[in-house]
Every structure is written in structure tokens, then in C-alpha cells.
Amino acid sequence: MRLISRLNPPSVLMALALTAFAGCASDAPPIGLVSGVVTHNGKPVPNLTVSFMPANGRPSWGMTDSGGVYSLHWDQDHEGAEVGVHKVCVAFVAGSQAEEPGRTKSPPATRDEQRAILSKYGFEQSPLTQEVKLGKQTIDLKLD
What we know:
The chain has helices at residues 2-6, 9-23, 111-121; strands spanning 31-40, 43-44, 49-54, 60-63, 69-71, 73-75, 78-79, 81-82, 84-91, 129-132, 135-138, 141-142. By secondary structure, it is an alpha+beta fold.
């Protein structure tokens, strides 16, 4: 009892608040760091948005560079994707390099290549699934 009486109430409240805050520092679920290379017919696909969508939870996305390399982002503060099985789909998104920092000056796939990729791996019809695990991993996507 003597110890409690020696502590002033503001100090006790501050200690309790800091303890509670430390327990709630992140609302992120378990996340795995994911990167890889996207190819179509053996060639890297630049300027492609890759989406990993879990059955429940927040999707992750990344954009390929000139070499077809992507890395996923869960939100502004977290890299990666939620642990679990994801549907994987892709999209070509128009925009300028200034609007989208990941966009490169590489020429995009031809319209025929874009149509071929999207007809098979677009949002509605993509047959791709990938499992994300804890830790760092490479998941290459062959869109053939």
C-alpha cells in the first residue's frame, strides 16, 4: 500500500496508458514480405499492377518495374501481404510516372499482349492462387 500511496496519480495513469498503447501499436495481421518477377512468354512484363487478394482481409498490391520485378504493399506503413492463400490477378493501369512512382519509362506490353494477359489473369477470371507465408519470400508469376 505504501508504494501506491507514494506514486502520484498522473504517473500511474501515464504508465497504464503507455502499457495499453504498446499492446495496440499495430492493427496489421501476420504479414509475409513478397516480391518476384512477372513474365509473359518468357519476357518480363513492365508497368503491370499485381494484386494478391485473400478470401478475408485486405488485398495487397505492387507494380512491376522495367524488369518485371514487383514487391507487395499491404498499406502505407506495411510491406507485404497477409499470411494465407490469395487469388492473384493483374491489371494494366494508365497513368503518368509522376502520378505513380513505381511506373517506369519502359514501353508497356503491346495491346495484343495486354489483351492476352488480361483475358486470362484479369480480376474476374484469374485462375492463379498463391500462398503467402511469414518471412521473406519470392513468388514469380509466369503468365503464359
